[in-house]
Design a protein that fits this description.
- The protein has 416 residues and is mostly helical.
- The protein folds into two domains: 10-198, MFS general substrate transporter like domains (Growth Hormone, Chain: A); 217-416, Growth Hormone, Chain: A (Up-down Bundle).
- Helix content is 76%, strand content 0%.
- The chain is globular and about 55 Å long.
- The two termini are 37 Å apart.
- 50% of the residues are buried.
Length: 416
């Protein structure tokens, strides 16, 4: 059986977005090495390097809802294109920020322009495919991201000892190249979106919806609240996990890199097929299953005694990641009004930024105060709470989107 068969029916516009995303992510080098650049190349203390990352996170949090609203007013393709071209140019100027305040200022501006790509990317891919294809389409975008990330940081690791400035130039060049793809083919994406989303069949003008309507959507904010504890668990991979591997299991730093490579390989080869197999699941089942696998995978680190058992834990939460993230993006796409999809995606991506700001900080605090076992038991509890909450997510109409398992029912819900 061909694991990629679910991608055959995706329109060319989806593959253009895939190509631009892949090119951009293949050049991802600066952010993973920003702390090392600040400390080793510029000679600032580690605290200053960490604060630079915090400034980037603040920029990401601020940008997400603004970029989402711009998508609704200007179009997701235009926001993606501007994000790639402008952030690429900023990266070329980055090495010329010689003082620490200048470095922070450039980092913030880069975060604002760079992170605008995320909600626009999700809004665009949701627009160009039929409702029944959304899980496959979001899996395709995650495939592009993970293929790119498997290349960019690895190349950056070889280049950083030779020239940190090369990281900025290559990352900037790939961002601009991705923007050029959207300059050349963006109009075909917009035409496809107009055909798939011709308007509200009920006759209501969704563009007349007031902003207050969004903040009154309790389904949206219930779902975002349910995602926060799960995302806090997820982001322990960037903080508590490497500390646990090195300090508690006495493994080398390279073991962490190998485990992240395992995560990426599984996603590249299994996520598309897994989402095709689970496409008929109601959203609440997929969201709860993914969250529970997060809880089980991270919680099992409390029983881990070596590399093999740690790898088994990574496999478990990677399956949760492969189920949860495409399903969560598809759920947001389906509960959002067509004319407000950018705002919904902006709030969705902002929840990741908030969790990224909270998760590593909370995890390391617990790690220092109570030890790693408390971190992993806490991760199991938080993930389980998130899984329980996911069982109660609701669609745009009474009942849950995806319950009927066919595009007609989903379309009826969307126009309800």
């Amino acid at each position: 059986m061909n694991p990629w068969r679910s991608l055959r029916g995706l329109p060319p516009a989806a593959w253009i977005i895939f190509t631009a995303t892949l090119i951009n992510r293949a050049g991802t080098m600066v952010l993973p090495f920003l702390v090392l650049y600040v400390t080793r190349s510029l000679g600032y203390p580690a605290a200053e390097g960490g604060f630079a990352i915090a400034v980037y996170g603040i920029g990401a949090i601020i940008t997400a809802p603004i970029a989402g609203r711009l998508c609704d007013h200007l179009g997701a393709v235009r926001v993606m294109r501007a994000s790639l071209l402008i952030s690429g140019c900023i990266l070329f100027a980055f090495p010329f920020a010689s003082s620490y305040p200048a470095l922070l200022a450039v980092t913030f501006v880069w975060a604002v322009t760079n992170e605008a790509f995320r909600p626009a990317n999700l809004a665009a891919i949701a627009t160009v495919v039929e409702p029944g294809q959304r899980k496959a389409a979001f899996a395709l975008i995650r495939l592009a991201i993970n293929l790119g990330i498997s290349v960019g940081p690895a190349v950056g690791g070889f280049l950083a000892p030779l020239s940190f400035h090369a990281l900025f130039y290559i990352d900037g060049a790939t961002s601009i190249l991705g923007g050029v793809v959207l300059v050349l083919y963006g109009s075909s994406i917009e035409r496809r979106g107009e055909r798939v989303q011709p308007g509200d069949a009920t006759g209501h003008d969704e563009r007349a919806l007031r902003p207050a309507t969004i903040f009154a959507d309790r389904r949206l904010f219930y779902f975002l609240a349910a995602m926060i504890p799960v995302q806090i668990v997820f982001f322990q991979f960037s903080s508590s996990l490497p500390l646990f591997l090195v300090q508690d299991l006495a493994l080398k730093e390279s073991a962490f890199g190998i485990l992240l490579t395992l995560n990426t390989i599984l996603i590249i080869f299994l996520e598309v097929a897994l989402n095709a197999a689970t496409a008929h699941w109601p959203h609440r089942w997929a969201l709860a299953a993914g969250s529970l696998l997060y809880a089980a995978g991270y919680g099992a680190f409390a029983l881990s005694t070596g590399f093999a058992s740690a790898a088994a834990c990574v496999v478990v939460w990677t399956f949760g990641e492969m189920i949860l993230l495409p399903s969560s993006a598809a759920y947001i796409a389906e509960i959002s009004p067509d004319a407000k999809r950018g705002v919904y995606m902006g709030l969705y991506t902002m929840s990741f930024s908030v969790s990224f700001a909270l998760g590593p900080w909370l995890g390391t605090m617990v790690f220092d105060a109570f030890g790693s076992r408390a971190v992993w038991l806490g991760a199991f509890v938080l993930g389980s709470i998130g899984a329980a909450l996911m069982l109660w997510v609701k669609g745009r109409a009474a009942g849950e989107i995806g319950e009927e398992g066919d595009a007609t029912a989903i379309a009826e819900i969307q126009t309800g």
